[in-house]
Structures are given as C-alpha cells and as structure tokens.
Amino acid sequence: MTTLTFKTPAKVNLGLHILGKREDGFHELETLFQMVNWCDEIKLERLSRGLELVCNQPDIPTDESNLVMKAARLLETRCPDRCKGVRIHLKKNIPHGAGLGGGSGNAAGVLLGLNFLWNLKLKRKDLILMASELGSDVPFFLFSPCAIGRGRGEILEPVESSIRFYVLMVYPGFPVSTAMVYGNLKLNLTKRENNINILKNFLLQSEFAQLGAAWSNDLEPVVFQEHPDISGIKKEMLALGAKGALLSGSGSTVFGIFDNPEIAKNAYARLERGKFRLFLAESVVSLSELYPEEMLC
C-alpha cells in the first residue's frame, strides 16, 4: 500500500470541571469527551524517505511546530530502523483554536495511520502512551468515541455508548488562546453535587435535558468576560431549542445538543443568518466510522 486516506474528528466537552493547579503547571481536570463527525481529512502518501506536510489552509504551519509533524517525528524516534518517508496531505475543515481538538485529532490519526503504512505493528495502547507526550487531548482520539478524561485529560475511562444525538457547533470566526484562558482562571474549589459520573449516566440514559441542565464548563466565565458575543451565542442556542449549550474546552466554539433533527436544523437555519461558521454533526459511536479497520491495531 502506498497511500492511506482517513478522517479525524472534532470533539466537544460535555462538561469540564477544573479541580486545581498541579505542580507541573498544568491543571487537574475532569471532563466528558465526545467525538463528533465534523472531520478533517488526511492522506498519507508513502515516500522513499523524508517527511513532508502540505495543507489546504495557508495559515496552518507545515513545519516542525505542527502536531502532525511532531507525531511523525515521535514515531521516527521510537522506530528509527522501520520508519520510511511520507508526504502528509492535511485538509482542514475544523477551525483552529476553536476548542474542538482538531490538531490533537490530526496527530492521533497520523500515529495510527503511519503505524499501519510503515508496518510498525505497535499496539494501540503503546500509541496512546506516545500520544500523551504530544498533548493532553491527543490520547482521547485513539481511545474511544466517548470517554471520561481526568488528570490533564490523558487519564481515560471509556464510556460505552451507542446513543446518537445531534450537535450544532457555532464557531464565532476567531480563536481563543488557551494560555490566556487558563492564565485568567479563578478557581472555585467548592465541592459539586453534579460530578462527571452523573453527566455520564444522563448521557447513557438519553436524558439530554437533564444532561444540559447539569453540565458546566469552568472556563466559560473567563471566555465570556473577554468575548461577550460568545455568551450571546449560547443564550440564542438555548432559546432555539437546544437541550443544553456549552463552550467546548477553552473555546471559542459553542455547541448545543439536540435529540430532534428538525429542531436542530431550524436552529442551524436561524443562526446561519449571523456572521458565524456553523456545522451540524452527529455524535460518533465507533472509531470504525472514521478509520479503516486495518488501522485500528
């Protein structure tokens, strides 16, 4: 095989609770990750030697600073005698700096894809350990379509869910700096009744209204204070019938969940009249929706 093509998904956070500051400078958190089928597209083209990255978006770096290149270099470091060359074609659809994990998903997909294309025969559990060196969200994209994340987000517990629901994502047209958000975060470490396991149970029981009423994102106050328009998107989403609406990660995307496709489509049509970029997606329930089976080592 000389080429391999696959998709890498976005994610949303169905609740995000910051537990405190860690000694390593990161924040301890718990969250409920969910993959959605708003996807980037990747084609791996085998070369005799060398690593190249090309991208359809001119503002996306294609040098060693890109997580995709870091993922390929990491495999080279671990398996120097077995890695060949590759040209990575990255078609970006997911906005950068939107809280949707697009770059993390790209890196995870490249780990999976090159493991197969180069016949490295690394187990997925080994790739997940490698992914944690690239970023806190990267392991999730190799793990399960829905999972609880703890620690920096890299300590994962699968949530075995076959429930499909609709997710309307609204990107306001600009990124939000994750460093800025965490740098301005004022921690409120009071004990909460609604922990992440309660959110998981609401999801598994398809109790979307209860899920939307119980979830929260501790990063919202920082983002909403800096960008009041993003808060307005959330309010409008709820007014248009979303069972819940929330900032994803550190933003800037706001998403709403719907169990009725017609209500979701009507909300899309109403919000489309603004200056925003929208995508109506469904939750992913199996990694085989994204990756060829032969990649899922």
Secondary-structure blueprint:
Blueprint: E1 3-21, E2 27-47, E3 51-55, H1 67-78, E4 85-91, H2 102-117, H3 124-131, E5 146-151, E6 155-158, E7 166-171, H4 178-183, H5 196-204, H6 208-214, H7 220-226, H8 228-239, E8 244-247, E9 254-258, H9 261-271, E10 277-282
Parallel strand pairs: 3-4
Antiparallel strand pairs: 1-2, 2-4, 2-5, 5-6, 7-9, 7-10, 8-9
Helix pairs in contact: 1-2, 2-3, 5-6, 7-8
How far apart are the first and last residues' alpha carbons, in Å? 17 Å
Give the total of beta strands: 10
| Poorly predicted sequence stretches spanning 5 or more consecutive residues | none
Helix amount: 25-40%
Mean pLDDT: 93
User: Could you say what the CATH topology of the largest domain is called?
Assistant: Ribosomal Protein S5, domain 2
Q: What count of helical segments does DSSP give?
A: 9
What is the H/E string? EEEHEHHEEEHHHHHEEHE
In terms of quaternary structure, the protein is single chain
Named CATH architecture of the largest domain: 2-Layer Sandwich
**How many structural domains are formed by the residues?**
2
Biggest sheet: strands, sense, closure?
A: 6 strands, mixed
Secondary-structure-based class equals alpha+beta
Query: Proportion of β residues?
Result: 25-35%
In one word, what is the shape? globular
The first-level CATH class of the largest domain is given as: Alpha Beta
Radius of gyration, in angstroms, nearest whole number: 19 Å
